[in-house]
Amino acid sequence: MERRPCGSNRDSISRRISCRNEEELETSNKGDGRSTEEVQKVMKKQFDKKRQNPQGLKVGDNMWLENKNIHSNRPSKKLDNKRYKPFRISKNIDSGAFQLELPEE
C-alpha cells in the first residue's frame, strides 16, 4: 500500500487528522481475517438458537393451540381464552412450526 507523508506539503492540523483517519481505516479494514462465509455461519448459528424446537416436540405429541390469530365470538379479546385444549401434532413444518389435527366443526 502506498503511504503518504502526513506533514509533507502543508503542516496543518486538518491534514494531520485526515492522514491519521486514513491509517485507522486501513488497519480496521484488515479485520480479524474471517471470511464472509464464516461470519454468515456464525450469524446463522446465533439466529437459529431461539428458533429451534426447545421442547423437543415431534409428530404424535400433544401441543396447546395459541389464540394468536384465531377470531372468536367473544365480546372482548381480553376475556377470550389464551390457549385452546392440546391437539395432536400431525406434521412438523419447520423448526418451531407444526400442523395440528383439529376437530371438524
What does this structure look like?
There is one protein chain. With 105 residues, the protein is α+β, with helices and mostly antiparallel strands. The chain folds into 2 domains: 37 residues, no CATH class; 47 residues, no CATH class. Helices cover 30% and strands 20% of the residues. The chain contains 2 helices and 3 strands; from the N terminus they run ααβββ. The chain has a 3-stranded antiparallel beta sheet, with no helix packed on it. The longest helix is centred in the first third of the chain and has 18 residues. The chain is elongated. The N and C termini lie far apart (74 Å). The mean pLDDT is 76.
Helix and strand topology:
Elements: H1 13-30, H2 36-48, E1 62-66, E2 83-94, E3 97-100
Antiparallel strand pairs: 1-2, 2-3
Outline the low-pLDDT stretches. none
Mean pLDDT: 76
Q: Domain count, please report it.
A: 2
The total of beta strands comes to 3
- Gyration radius, rounded: 29 Å
Globular, elongated, flat, extended or rod-shaped: what is the shape?
elongated
Helix-residue proportion: 25-40%
H/E series: HHEEE
In spatial order, strands of the major sheet run: 1-2-3
Distance between the termini: 74 Å
The fraction of residues assigned to DSSP E strands is 15-25%
Largest sheet: 3 strands, antiparallel
What structural class should be given to the helix and strand makeup? alpha+beta
DSSP helix count?
Answer: 2
